[in-house]
TrEMBL record:
Protein name according to UniProt: Pyruvate kinase
Keyword ATP-binding part of the UniProt annotation: yes
This protein's pathway: Carbohydrate degradation; glycolysis; pyruvate from D-glyceraldehyde 3-phosphate: step 5/5
Sample GO molecular function, one term: potassium ion binding
Entry keywords, A to Z: ATP-binding, Glycolysis, Kinase, Magnesium, Metal-binding, Nucleotide-binding, Pyruvate, Transferase
Length: 577
């Protein structure tokens, strides 16, 4: 790392004509002019002067014949996509699929993985732990035997005050005009037109004439009679009634406030979390998070359990969570926008702007965001989506959300694989259009790092992305232990894909949710960063995915043991010969 005294931060950009590949150089520095990189701010050092961070760009040829291992931790789907579409054609928006009875066989899971599923979500509201364990086992088997890289997420049920169950193993159709009994009494089996609430005080404060809404609008009922704690309701809007559905009450167009002292994490949630930790899941999504306390509580628990590789996501699905959004985002490892439940608590017309604001806050704070709920809702029943649904998907991609999620479309719908292919096609097309139109979103560069090393890493990543876009490099290679610099690069949404090389499998699976990041599991040396670079590039070149003339940018957050390493805290640009 070059250090000098100055009042500004510069990136030394040593540029030659990219089209010329016969440099005859091996990690030599080509001379060129110094180009300022708009990375902002002064960094104070311990001495009297100030520290100037310079990112030295090295343009050199990579010699053939390097010894490399035969195996490379690039998943088969990314490898095939790279061969077919090239670097700039690779999809950057990640795809999450909810696993349910319609797609839980090994064959169906493999088809979803081949279709681009990056994360498999298990909703702990449904099915048994043995069922979930079997799905996790199948996904691990596909990863190990077939070469996929699919992460596993469990989604907690949340407070029981929100849950109803009709007892049937699959969805039930509620027809308009039919009368239903909602009760907290335990029901045997699945009696017709009877629904069990999982919280004894579910009807407290509810009046005749109030509206009961199921799963954010899947079906609606009007309360026509109240007998003790039981409610007799008439269906006013027909629709599907899923097992363990969530519900809310409305009065005169406003949400009826529910006063409950139930904790965010119930006893069942803690049991499910313990199950997830024992099964080695990669993400835990918390339902009905109204403040940062339950997120911190769970992260402390995971730390004590030595499960630091398990990431905690907070689901934003209530008015209270919006009011404390920034503290929740800061405490969590990522956010899921549950638009169905959120749409119950705020006016419909506010959903698009709220979604965009949550996405912006997450990017500023460098936390991945999943846009979920009702993306292709019609495909729960029909083989094609509405055009409005495709436009909705494209808008989430335009907002640079990290990931899109299928819920009932994949879990219970007969067209889950087709729904996934539509997400894949729509997101790829919108990404291409954004790049062709040069629609680089302007991100307020909120400074994240507190310590000097973290601030240096942040500035290097900001500069690296700007340079990668301006130079038109084919790919960015980042060598990382915990995924820090890969995440910082992703935050800036570069045009080229980010290949993140790591020796930690937990880091690899966590990066599966980051926009534009292709994580690879490889053995990395702390002693020789130049060998890491040469070896990994040679691995990809030998597979035929790098060709002469391709240009890659290299950054790293691995701390070298040799003080004179040129790869640490630098930006290198290398051309394949």
């Amino acid at each position: 790392m070059a250090v000098a005294t100055s009042d500004s931060i510069l990136a030394r950009s040593l540029i030659t004509d990219r089209r010329s590949t016969n440099f005859g150089l091996k990690n030599e520095v080509c001379r060129g002019k110094v180009v300022p990189c708009r990375a902002g701010g002064k960094v104070k050092g311990k001495g009297k002067g100030r520290v100037e961070v310079k990112a030295v760009v090295q343009i050199g040829g990579l010699e053939e014949g390097k010894k490399a291992k035969d195996e490379m931790g690039l998943d088969v789907v990314s490898e095939e996509e790279l061969r077919e579409k090239g670097f700039l054609g690779m999809r950057k928006t990640k795809l999450v699929c909810t696993i349910g009875p319609a797609c839980c066989s090994l064959q169906d899971l493999e088809k979803l993985a081949l279709g681009g599923m990056n994360v498999a979500r298990l909703n702990m509201c449904h099915n048994t732990r043995d069922w979930h364990r079997d799905v996790i086992k199948k996904i691990n088997q596909l990863n190990e035997e077939k070469g996929f890289c699919v992460s596993v997420m469990i989604d907690t049920e949340g407070s029981q005050i929100h849950v109803l169950d009709h007892g049937a193993p699959s969805s039930v159709k509620a027809e308009e005009g039919s009368t239903w009994l909602f009760t907290a009494q335990k029901l045997e089996g699945s009696p017709p037109f009877a629904i069990q609430a999982n919280y004894e005080g579910f009807s407290e404060g509810i009046e005749v004439g109030d509206e009961l809404v199921i799963d954010g609008g899947m079906a609606s009922f009007q309360v026509i009679e109240k007998v003790g704690n039981d409610l007799r309701c008439k269906c006013t809007d027909s629709g599907l009634f899923l097992p363990r559905a969530k519900f809310s009450f409305w009065r005169n167009g406003k949400l009826v406030a529910r006063n409950s002292e139930l904790p965010t994490l119930s006893k069942k949630d803690w049991a499910d979390i313990e199950f997830g930790v024992s099964e080695g899941v990669d993400f835990i999504a918390l339902s009905f998070v109204n403040d940062a306390d339950p997120v911190r509580q769970l992260k402390n628990y995971l730390y004590m359990r030595s499960s630091r590789s398990t990431r905690v996501l907070a689901k934003v699905e209530s008015l209270e969570s919006l009011q404390k959004l920034k503290e929740i985002v800061e405490a969590s490892d990522g956010i899921m926008v549950a638009r169905g439940d959120l749409g119950v608590e705020i006016p419909y017309e506010q959903i698009p702007t709220v979604q965009e604001e949550i996405t912006r806050v997450c990017r500023e704070m460098n936390k991945p965001i999943i846009v979920a709920s009702q993306l292709l809702e019609s495909m729960v029943e029909y083989p094609t989506p509405t055009r409005a649904e495709v436009a909705d998907v494209s808008e989430a991609v335009r907002q640079y959300a990290d990931a899109l999620m299928l819920s009932g479309e994949s879990a219970i719908g007969p067209y889950g694989q087709k729904a996934l292919s539509i997400l894949q096609m729509a997101s790829s097309r919108m990404e291409l259009w954004s790049r062709e139109e040069n629609r680089q979103s302007i991100l307020h560069q909120r400074r994240l790092g507190v310590s000097l090393p973290d601030r240096i890493a942040e500035q290097i990543c900001n500069c690296a992305v700007e340079m990668a876009n301006n130079l038109g490099v084919d790919a960015i290679f980042v060598y990382t232990k915990h995924g820090q610099m890969a995440s910082l690069l992703s935050r800036n949404r570069p045009y080229p894909p980010i290949f993140a090389f790591t020796s930690d499998n937990g880091t690899r699976m966590a990066l599966n949710l980051q926009w534009g990041v292709i994580p690879l599991l490889v053995e990395l040396s702390d002693d020789d960063m130049e060998a890491n670079i040469s070896t990994t590039i040679e691995l990809i070149r030998r597979k035929g995915m790098l060709k002469p003339g391709d240009v890659v940018m290299v950054v790293s957050d691995l701390t070298p043991t040799h003080i004179n390493s040129t790869a640490f805290q630098s930006i290198q640009v290398k051309t394949v010969v």
